[in-house]
Structures are given as C-alpha cells and as structure tokens.
Amino acid sequence: MSDRVRRGGVHRVQPVAREFLVISIDTLNDSGTAIVVEVGDARAWSDYRNLLVVPFGGSDRCALAWRVNYMRADRLGRPIDTVDADTLARVVAALTAAVEP
C-alpha cells in the first residue's frame, strides 16, 4: 500500500486515533489538502441507519457522511485500508443527495 494520500484510502489520525476516508480527488490530495469523512463502527450506528451512514461491504465499519471535513493531507499519514469503488461511490452519492435540491 502506498504512503500517498489517495481517494478511497482510510487513515487513522493520531493523537486522536480517529479514522477518516478520503473522498477528494487525487489532484486535490496531491496539492496538500484532503476532503474526508469520519469512519465509525457500524454496530454503534446501527440505530441511526439513514442516508448518511454508509456501511463498508464486508466490514464492521461505516462512513459517517455528515462528518465531512478537510485537513492537510500530510496529517493523514499512511493509509491503514482502502474501500472499493462501490463503497466510495455510495459515500459520494449520499453526500450529493444530502446537499442537492
């Protein structure tokens, strides 16, 4: 797995030990800024299943799409995982559906 920040990468940020999924395009990531959504435990959010809780296939994790933010790409460090293209598309679709009239 590459050390570079890439779209679809999941990173654990220290010292807060929170995980984030990179949703921004790699051109933006390469310029030093990444747009991310927080990753949570799908079991903890099971009662809140809605448009903005997007489960990762085959995992106990989910994207908490209302927790979208940006950060310096170099704060993300090495990726600990990646999501597949289908999961990333569902996260982006959830965000789009929540903001498009």
What's the structural blueprint in terms of helices and strands?
Layout: E1 9-13, E2 18-22, H1 26-30, E3 33-41, E4 53-55, E5 61-72, E6 79-82, H2 85-99
Antiparallel strand pairs: 1-2, 1-6, 2-3, 3-5, 4-5
Description:
The protein has 101 residues and is of the alpha+beta class. The chain has one domain (9-99): SH3 type barrels, CATH 2.30.30. Helix content is 20%, strand content 38%. The protein has helices at residues 26-30, 85-99; strands at 9-13, 18-22, 33-41, 53-55, 61-72, 79-82. It has a six-stranded antiparallel β-sheet. A hairpin with a 4-residue loop joins strand 1 (9-13) and strand 2. The longest helix is centred in the last third of the chain and has 15 residues, at 85-99. The radius of gyration is 13 Å and the shape is globular.
Helix content: 10-25%
Low-confidence stretches: none
**Biggest sheet: strands, sense, closure?**
6 strands, antiparallel
| Tally of helical segments | 2
The backbone outline, from C-alpha atoms, is globular
**First-to-last CA distance:** 38 Å
Structural class: alpha+beta
Beta percentage is 35-45%
Q: What is the spatial order of strands in the main beta sheet?
A: 4-5-3-2-1-6
Number of domains: 1
CATH class: Mainly Beta
Please tell me the CATH architecture by its name.
Roll
SSE string: EEHEEEEH
Q: What is the radius of gyration computed over CA atoms, rounded to a whole number of angstroms?
A: 13 Å
Reported by name, the CATH topology is SH3 type barrels
